[in-house]
Amino acid sequence: MKDFIQGFLNVLYPPYCVLCGQLLPMEDWKDGLCKSCAESTPYLTGNRCGFCGRELEWGDICHSCLENRPVFERGISAFDYEVLRDGIARFKFDGSREDGKVFGRLMADFLLSYHGDWIEEIDFLTGVPLHAHKQKERGFNQAEILCQSISLYTGIPYEKDILTRTKETIPQSKLSAKERHKNIKNVFIAQHCSDKCVLLVDDILTTGATLNECSRALYREGAKKVEVFCLSVTE
Ligand SMILES: O=P(O)(O)OC[C@H]1O[C@H](OP(=O)(O)OP(=O)(O)O)[C@H](O)[C@@H]1O
Predict the structure, then answer these.
(1) 134: Cβ–Cβ under 8 A, 6 or more apart, which residues?
(2) Contact, 53 vs 205, CB < 8 A?
(3) C-alpha angle 140/70/79, rounded to 5°?
(4) Which CATH topology does 47-233 take?
(5) Per-residue pLDDT tens over the stretch 84-141
(6) Quick check: ipTM above 0.90?
């Protein structure tokens, strides 16, 4: 009976790979990934900017982070946004939380595989908050789902409600780079982070303005160190 119901659900909602979107026969479905993406997950590795994770030809910091030097200590991103564009849209805008849990699991795998040395010093993870109205409308906060999953697979504690977004802002995705910095200025407040090393999580880094403003708020409340971990970074 259970198999019958599962088979029926698979016809209604065929399983697909959260990374490439390919529809999958059940036997090829492996924890939300197709065989090819599971065997060769397109993580961002190699020489990367120490703040945003963009590829570098030389040096330690990309042009964009040199121009607007982030206040956070360092940062990493697991994927190129172009690879995840459709997947993030399914997660955030179609409400596919299960996809978000897989993304979080992949972030945990990326952290453990390539930046394992970060884990020891981190006191807790926290996510970029949505404004209460937007969270009600969306039904969830994408960063929270990522944090829960990262915490589950790495053992790093997840602390909710450390950051609050005090103003309902225009989505960054609708604005130019210059407007984004202005739009997000002073909209976050933080609590319960004094003397803590915080790993701040979000889904997309474009200008870095959002993560930077959250970091400012955390430092204002006495955080010892803020490090940033993003699911994806744009070109
Ligand atoms: O690096 P930045 O230039 O600051 O942009 C990144 C932010 O933009 C997106 O959110 P957005 O405000 O568009 O809202 P959303 O959650 O509805 O996508 C994304 O979720 C990040 O939080």
Answers:
(1) 168
(2) yes
(3) 55
(4) Rossmann fold (3.40.50)
(5) 999 999 999 999 999 999 999 999 999 999 999 999 999 999 999 999 999 999 999 9
(6) yes
Condensed to tens digits (0 to 9), the pLDDT of residues 175-212 reads 999 999 999 999 999 999 999 999 999 999 999 999 99
DSSP reduced 3-state for 48: strand
> What residue owns the CA closest to ligand 1's atom 19?
204
Residue 203, ligand 1, Cβ within 6 A = yes
Residue 214 CA, ligand 1 centroid: distance in Å: 12
Q: What is the pLDDT of residue 72?
A: 98
- This prediction's pTM: 0.94
Which protein residue has the closest C-alpha to ligand 1 atom 14?
171
Give yes or no for residue 128 CB within 6 A of ligand 1: yes
Instruction: Indicate where the chain has its CATH 3.40.50.2020 domain(s).
Output: 47-233
CB 48 within 8 A of CB 76: yes
